Amino acid sequence: MTQPRFSAIPLGRPWCQAIQLSDGRRLLMRPIQPADAKRLQRSFQTLTPQEIRMRFMHPMTELSAEFAQRLCTVDGHSAFALILVEAKPPAKALIAAVGRLAVDEDGPEGEFAIIVSREVQRQGLGRYLMQQLIDWARERGLQAIYGFILSENRPMLALLKSMGFTLGPSDEDIGIELAQLRLDATGTR
Ligand SMILES: CC(C)(COP(=O)(O)OP(=O)(O)OC[C@H]1O[C@@H](n2cnc3c(N)ncnc32)[C@H](O)[C@@H]1OP(=O)(O)O)[C@@H](O)C(=O)NCCC(=O)NCCS
Question: Is residue 77 part of a domain?
Answer without folding.
Answer: yes
